Amino acid sequence: MTSAPSKRIVTGADLSSRGEPYLWSMGGALALGLLMIFGFLALVAWNGFATFYPKPVEVLRLKDGSMVAGEPTRSEMYRLPKNELDSLDQKARKAVQEDKGFGRRTLYRTGNFDLYNEDFVWVSDFKVMERSEPKTILFIERMEWGPFIGLLQALTVKGEKLAAGSFTLDRLEEEHRKAVERRKRVKDIERDEMGALNYELDRARLALRRIALEKGKESPEYRAEERRQDARAAPLQTRYGLLQKEAESIKREDGLYSVVLRDIRGTEKTLALSQLVRFYPANDLTLRGKFKIYASRWIEFLTAEPREANTEGGVLPAIFGTFVMTVLLAVAVAPFGIMAALYLREYAKQGRLVSLVRICVNNLAGVPSIVYGVFGLGFFAYILGGTIDQLFFPERLPNPTFGSGGLLWASLTLAMLTVPVVIVSTEEALAAVPQSMREGSLACGASKWQTIKNIVLPKAMPGIMTGLILAMARGAGEVAPLMLVGVVKIAPSLPLDDLFPFLHLERSFMHLGFHIYDVGFQSRNSEAGKPMVFVTTLLLIGLVAVMNATAIYIRNRLKRKYYVGHF
Amino acid sequence: MEAKARVDFDNTDTIYHTKPGGGGSILDIERFCLWYGRAQALFNNTLNIERGLVTALIGPSGCGKSTLLRSLNRMNDLIAGLSISGTIVFEGKNIYDPDVDVIGLRKRMGMVFQKPNPFPMSIADNVTYPLKVDHVTDRRVLEDTLERALKGAALWDEVKDRLKDSALGLSGGQQQRLCIARAIAADPDFLLMDEPCSALDPLATTKIEDLINELKGRYTIIIVTHNMQQAARVSDNTAFLYLGRLIEYGETNAIFTRPRLRQTEDYITGRFG
C-alpha cells in the first residue's frame, strides 16, 4: 500500500507510538532459537546416520617407500614446522611456500592396532606418491583389537588350508556364519546356563549363611539345611561339568577354523574365524551390499552388548537401563508429586506459610543436579541402603546389596530431582480448574474428596500429565547425579532377567547419557569413539522422543475418556 | 416529591408486606450478619421464606444478595476468613450449628449458578452426579432419575438421543437447563438460583423462566436476579437489599407497583443501581 503524506493523519513523535519497533527482534530471537535447535538436531542426525555407512579404503604408497591402507576420516590444513619443511624436495617445498607455509593432511583409520599400536595416522598430501583403491582389500571387524584392514591370504577349514583364490568370499561368509553360531553357543553356555547355575549355588550358599547368622552353626536347622543342600548340590555339579565339557568341545572344534590375513606392509596375522564380527571388500561393494553392511551395523548397535571398552558393539544394556530407570522414575514421582500438590492447592490454608513452601518448591527445581546425586548417595545408598542390608541381607555383608548405588536409588534420586516440576505443573493445572466446577459439585452434596476425585483431578489431568512428561524428559537425560548413584561403564547383567525376583533393583546399570560421556571422553581411543558419540546421542534423543510421544498419547486418551464417560 | 420516607441506613427497620404461601414458612432467617474478614457484607437480615413460593432477591451489585443466597446452603464456607452471626433455621434447626451435616444440607438445596457449569462428563453422568456421590449404583434408579430430572428441566426431548455425549457440546441455554436438571435430580426441597439467566440469550431466558413457573410449588425457589422484569414475572415475593441491609420485603406485585419506600422505588425505576 502506498501512502501519500496526508495532513489529517497525525503521527506520534517517536517510533514506538507509530509501529512495532521490536517486532523484528522478537521474531528474530524466536527464529534464532528454532534455528539452533534444528541445526543441532540436523548435526546429530547427519553424523549419527552417516557413521555406520561403509567407507572406501585407500592404499597409499608414500615417497619414503612405506605403505598405508585406511579409511580417510577427515582432512585439514596445517602449518608445517620448519624442520619438516626443510626435509622436503624442491617441488613440494615450493607448493607449501605458495600456500603461506600450510599443507594439507588427511587422517586415515588404519586399524590393525595389534600391529601398529595405533588406529589412526595423519598423512600429509605431499608425502604421497601413489593413491589407489584395490578391489581385493578387506575391512574386517574383530571381537578384539578393533578393525583389521588387509588382504585375505588363506582359510583353514577343519585343519585343511585353502589358499586365497581357491575359494570365493561367499564360501568364507558361510563358514563365518557357522563360526559365529559356535561363538554364540559358547557364550550362551558360559554366561546364561552356567550363570544361572552359579546364581542358584550362590543363593543356596547365602541361605545357609543366613541360617548360620540367625541360629548358629550348631543348630539343627543349619544341619538340616546343609544336608538338603548337599543332596541338591551333586546334580548341580554334574550338570555344571557337562556344560563345561560341551563348551570345551565346541571351542576345540572352533580351533580348526581360522583365516590368515596379511596387512598392506606384508605382516601375516592368523585369526580364529569366530573372532570375526563382519568383513567386506570395502572397494568392491554394490550399493545393495553397502546397505546390507549399514543395516547389520545398526542391528548390532541396537541389540548387542558393547565390546572394546564401549567403542564397538551395541548399546542394548544402556537403552534398557535408561528405559527401566525412566519408567521407575515416573512411577515414583507421579503419586508423590500429585499428592503434594493436591494438599498444597486444595487442602492447605492459603497463607504466608504456603507461599513460603511454594517458593521453596520452585527453588528446588533450580538446585544443581549433582547435589541431588550427593544426597542420593549419602542418604539413599549409605543410610537407607545400609540399614536395609543390615536388616534383610546380613548374609551378604560386607558386600553391599542395597548399600551402594543401584537402579532403585538412581530412580528415587531422579524422582527427588523432578518432583518440583511435577508439583508446580500439577498446582498450575489444579488452579486452572474453574472454581465454578468445584462449587457445582459441592452444591450437589459431594464431599471435598469426591469433588477432587470426580471433577478436579479429571479436569486437571492433561496438565498433570504434561508435568509428568516434562519430568520424565528431564530425568531421562540427566547424567551427573547418576554417576554417583548407580550408573556404571559396563554392567555385568541387565536389571531385568529371568532369574527370581526378575527386577533386580539393587543392580547397577548402564545409561545412554553416561555412555555418551564414556565413549567420547573416557575411552582408549577418543577418535574411534567420536562417531559413536553422535550415534548414541541420536539414540538418546530418539528414546526420549518415543517415551514422550507415548506419554502424550496416553494423555490424549485420558482427555477423551474423562471428557465423555458413562455410567 | 418528598412523599415517601427516606431510609436512615444506620437504623433501619425493614418494611414487610409479604404474601403468605399457604405452606407456612420453611426457612427463618433471623438477624443474620456476615463478614468477609473485617468487611461486613450483611447486616441483621431477618426474613422468612415461604414454602413452595418463588422468592426473588434484588438489589444493586454488591448489595449482598448472592452472599445471602450462598449462606443458605453454606457455600460461603469455602471462603477463608468468613464469620457470621444470627441464625438461619430450617426444620427447627439452625443450619450454622456446629453439629449440622453440611453435605446433607446441600443435598436438600439444589443450586444453579450464574454461568452454566456442567461437568466435563456425559449428559447422563452430569444429571446423576448427585446420586453417584451417594453411591447409588442401581441402574434402574439412575435411569428413572435421569429421565425425571431431564423432563423436569424441559430438556428430555432435546437430549434423549444423545445422553452419552459430552455435556460441553450443548448450547448455553441447554447447559443451564442441564444444571437445573442436576440440581433437582436428588429431589431437594429448595432450588437456589444465582442469576441463572445472566449468561443466556433472551430465548433461553424465556425457557428458563417458563421452567421456574412450572417448578413452582414442587420446590421452594429462591432466585437472585438483576433483571427487574424477570423478578416481576417469576416471583411471588421480592426482597430488596441495599448495602447489605434488607430494605423492603413484600409481595412482588406490591413491590413493583406500590413500593412503600422511596429507596425501593428509585431502584426499580432505574434511578440508581
Characterization of the model:
The complex is a heterodimer of chains A (567) and B (273). Helix content of chain A is 57%, strand content 13%. Chain A has 567 residues and is of the alpha+beta class. In chain A, strands 6, 7, 8, 9, 10 and 11 form a 6-stranded antiparallel beta sheet that branches. Chain A has a 5-stranded antiparallel beta sheet with strand order 4-3-2-1-5, with no helix packed on it. In chain A, strand 1 (58-62) and strand 2 form a beta hairpin. The model of chain A has no long low-confidence stretch (mean pLDDT 85). Chain B is of the alpha/beta class and 273 residues long. Chain B has a domain at 114-187. Chain B has helices at residues 65-72, 102-107, 123-132, 139-152, 156-159, 172-185, 202-215, 228-234, 252-257, 262-268, and strands spanning 15-17, 25-36, 39-50, 54-58, 82-90, 93-94, 109-112, 190-194, 220-224, 237-242, 245-251. In chain B, strand 2 (25-36) and strand 3 form a beta hairpin. In chain B, helix 6 runs parallel beside helix 7 (202-215). The model of chain B is unreliable at 1-11 (pLDDT under 50). Chains A and B meet through helix 12 and helix 13 of A and helix 2, strand 7, helix 3 and helix 6 of B.
